[in-house]
């Protein structure tokens, strides 16, 4: 500064002008030094660190690099230069030092936060993390870190000892917790929801306790706003999503497949062994030609090997109409353009009951849109209901008034009334 003043003094300027110009020149000089130091830190030092990290045999340092710990650390360099340059400007030294120190504290907090994230990611790369997760402890450490960091920042700005602020907060804590109870609960819930990625705007959630079933349209400190499918709006307290159970359908939407799980109930009295005529008809069905031929060869080979008397259908192995029907549905779904072929696809029998034999379809559509999904599901079961008689099967249905009227008419006709 003295050198600059001496140089300007040679031009015959006034003392006030020299003071302004020297300060401006010094500010520009410090700014250039900060830019140069930042450039060296990021373009040379940081690149060197990245090169070393990428070319060693360890993997944990790659995670630290991914969490940008070193990138955040490089922001300290200009702040340190400004902090130690504050003495050049005696009138503003206190303000400059406070501003630079506040920035350094904030950067340090962000570096420690990134380190905690890196530590969590490193720990989760080991199998023990599935048995002994530490994410909850990491979150507590982050809360403590931000609280302490906030107190240190405030104490630095007001020039007071952090212990004085802590003692004052302790005296007011009871009042604060009473007045801001909902906000505190909402804040804690918001941290949990965000850190665990439990819910986002646009997610479809279902929470029967609050009659909520629709899309999340807004998340605030105290409430989560859900637009139900009937266009009503449900407001759920943020902390309720932590304390109570809810279903998030995001996984289904992201996966690209939506589950179809519905049963076709077969009248058990229509189940029978396949006759020769039925088998010949089944061979004409595109999806069953290879199956029927292969199964018949297996059954005939088994019966010959065990010298089964095939004059009675009870002996040995035989094709049944319900078994062939089940295979037909399976092949039909395998060739359906709207069924997700990379996900589970099962056609199975459930335990028979009062409503006949349930044949359950368990598959996934490749379109998660609600309207399209319902259309796909309806088309599949339209086809199943229509094709069942081809296999000699009847859908189970409890007697209706129409059935009773037909029974009465047939009885009267048989008696000659």
Automatic annotation (TrEMBL):
**Where found, per UniProt?**
Cell inner membrane
Query: What Gene3D superfamilies does this protein map onto?
Result: 2.30.30.60
This protein's superkingdom?
Answer: Bacteria
GO MF terms listed in the record are:
mechanosensitive monoatomic ion channel activity
Q: Which residues form the Mechanosensitive ion channel MscS domain?
A: 182-250
How does this chain sit within the bilayer?
Answer: Multi-pass membrane protein
Protein's UniProt name? Mechanosensing system component YbdG
